[in-house]
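Quick one, tokens below:
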């Protein structure tokens, strides 16, 4: 990544997120290429980074979109993803969301419960439409990742067990308003082990074969997202081995493979850049206080997640400290007990691997505007989201003051 953080700070102020669009292209292309032996659709998981310019960049490369709210579906359409490449997942879709999804004629609705299937059936009947259904199977596999981002165990709220899925497919087959089209499985995020993915896909492939035996022929197998990235020193799943193991399990089955990566595509494209306000020592604990905070990048506070941190000065005098923001919470930190050099007012600090689940999880806590987002492509930078102003933050309340 060859980005001049100082120049961007002068031009756009701090804090900001910057994304390397060339990295996004490379990640997308690597994955797409590894599936080249089969019909495949890479449906980018919009939740990881839903900036319209990021989605548009991926749409231009041929990506589809995996969405978990009708808002994300509309973002994807607005950014130029064709409706026939959009998938809508999520455990709690409202009637209005189902109705809109049907009217927008997207590729698949990923259904996550028997009751939801009934709602989709009723609504598609009312609209005189046929809903293309994919059922999210919960294979009860431990993905061996952080419990907050594990989704493939029965104790997690996602999907349905195999027997329920089978009954639901039979319901689809017997319904004039439902078309059994796909099958879906996603066991968790930041996965670094291949075996749980293989085990899960094997369970799904067996179900596809069982369904075939009763004349239910599916066209799409959605293997979920979840491929991990390097934050620190993780050993990653090799993409070629990943796709190969999916193809092995699917031997003899002629389905288009859908894969829905988020973090893998954008995670290491992004850097969160913040500047030093102050240093202080409480007792013998050193703190560096910066202008970015937990409302901008919540992963350290929420998951105790590690992000590599670099102070952009030439100081060689390192010592232990906590890197914290101005928000009024002790949980407002980017790193604790970390060796960093002595800093001065206005020194810049880069927090890496922030392209996924960074800006999308940001909030306005403490009436802090969300920061600017910048794209860099082929050495050229451009603003892709303005920094929020105080006026933006009060716009929806102001008229109601009595
Ligand atoms: N498909 C489904 C159904 C998902 O639930 C997710 C992520 C993805 C695809 C994309 O997963 P990825 O390829 O990005 O791992 N906020 C957390 C991550 C939550 C992931 C939720 N689901 C974090 O910051 O680590």
């Amino acid at each position: 990544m060859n980005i001049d953080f100082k120049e961007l700070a002068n031009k756009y102020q701090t804090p900001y997120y910057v994304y390397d669009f060339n990295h996004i292209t490379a990640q997308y292309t690597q994955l797409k290429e590894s599936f080249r032996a089969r019909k495949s659709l890479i449906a980018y998981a919009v939740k990881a980074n839903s900036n319209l310019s990021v989605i548009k960049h991926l749409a231009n490369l041929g990506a589809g979109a995996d969405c978990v709210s009708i808002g994300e579906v509309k973002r994807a359409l607005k950014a130029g993803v064709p409706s026939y490449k959009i998938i809508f997942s999520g455990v709690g879709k409202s009637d209005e969301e189902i109705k809109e999804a049907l009217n927008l004629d997207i590729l698949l609705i990923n259904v996550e419960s028997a009751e939801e299937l009934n709602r989709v059936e009723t609504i598609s009947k009312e609209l005189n439409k046929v809903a293309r259904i994919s059922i999210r199977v919960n294979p009860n596999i431990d993905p061996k990742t952080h419990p907050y981002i594990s989704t493939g165990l029965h104790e997690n709220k996602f999907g349905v067990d195999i027997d329920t899925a089978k009954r639901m497919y039979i319901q689809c087959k017997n319904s004039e308003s439902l078309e059994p089209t796909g099958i879906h499985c996603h066991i968790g995020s930041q996965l670094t082990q291949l075996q749980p993915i293989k085990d899960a896909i094997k369970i799904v492939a067996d179900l596809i074969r069982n369904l075939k035996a009763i004349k239910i022929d599916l066209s799409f197998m959605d293997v979920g997202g979840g491929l991990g990235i390097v934050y620190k020193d993780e050993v990653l799943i090799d993409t070629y081995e990943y796709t190969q193991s999916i193809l092995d399990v699917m031997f003899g089955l002629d389905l288009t493979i859908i894969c829905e990566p988020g973090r893998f595509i954008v995670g290491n494209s992004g850097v969160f850049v913040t500047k030093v306000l102050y240093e202080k020592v409480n007792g013998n604990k050193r703190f560096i206080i910066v202008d970015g905070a937990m409302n901008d990048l919540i992963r350290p506070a929420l998951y105790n997640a590690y992000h590599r941190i670099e102070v952009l000065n030439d100081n060689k005098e390192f010592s232990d400290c906590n890197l914290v923001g101005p928000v009024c919470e002790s949980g407002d930190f980017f790193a604790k007990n970390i060796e960093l050099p002595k800093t001065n007012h206005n020194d810049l600090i880069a927090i890496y691997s922030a392209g996924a689940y960074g800006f999308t999880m940001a909030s306005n806590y403490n009436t802090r505007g969300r920061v600017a987002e910048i794209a860099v492509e082929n050495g050229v930078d451009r603003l892709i989201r303005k920094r929020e102003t105080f006026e933006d933050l009060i716009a929806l309340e102001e008229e109601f003051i009595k």
